[in-house]
Automatic annotation (TrEMBL):
It comes from Phytophthora nicotianae (Potato buckeye rot agent). PANTHER family: NADH OXIDOREDUCTASE-RELATED, NADPH DEHYDROGENASE 2-RELATED. The lineage of its organism: Eukaryota, Sar, Stramenopiles, Oomycota, Peronosporomycetes. This is NADH:flavin oxidoreductase/NADH oxidase N-terminal domain-containing protein. InterPro entries: Aldolase_TIM, OxRdtase_FMN_N, Oye-like. Residues 13-121 form the NADH:flavin oxidoreductase/NADH oxidase N-terminal domain. GO terms for molecular function: FMN binding; oxidoreductase activity.
Length: 149
């Protein structure tokens, strides 16, 4: 039986919350967060630019949370031109002005880590992917996976 709406209270959207454990908690002043949105504004190198920093800065709020767009964790996991990465030193350095812009406004930021798997472009793959099912994807556009041996 569902609880009676008159006797159950939900926390206010604008009330504070602490995320994480005792070691390094993230304290938010409200519960409104920017969900990840694919921006594809980093070019082939996958390095965030001033435009990316400006985008996130405009959306940062004091004590609020921003979750970055899907960010590639490996060169073989890239699937879309213009999506950012965080797998080489140049990309890591390029994220620093973005996080600084968010922190300067009192915001917090989480990165959405991303590996596109079979969606990744075959030119980024050093070997064919390994999959549990040895058949092409339903659209017939991706490379046939190899058997794990």
């Amino acid at each position: 039986m569902a609880p009676n709406a008159n006797t159950t209270t939900a926390p206010s959207l604008f009330s504070a919350i602490t995320l994480g454990g005792k070691e390094d908690p993230v304290k938010l002043k409200h519960r409104v967060a920017l969900a990840p949105l694919t921006r594809v504004r980093t070019g082939d190198a996958g390095t965030p630019t001033d435009l990316v920093a400006q985008y996130y800065e405009q959306r940062a709020t004091d004590g609020g949370l921003l979750i970055t767009e899907a960010t590639n964790i490996s060169p073989t996991g890239r699937g879309y031109f213009g999506a950012p990465g965080i797998f080489n030193q140049n990309q890591i350095e390029s994220w620093k002005p973005v996080t600084k812009a968010i922190h300067d406004k009192g915001g917090k930021v989480f990165v959405q880590l991303w590996h596109t798997g079979r969606v990744g472009h075959p030119l980024n793959q050093t070997q064919r992917t390994i999959a549990s099912v040895l058949e092409r994807d339903s659209h017939g556009q991706r490379q046939e996976p190899r058997r794990h041996s």
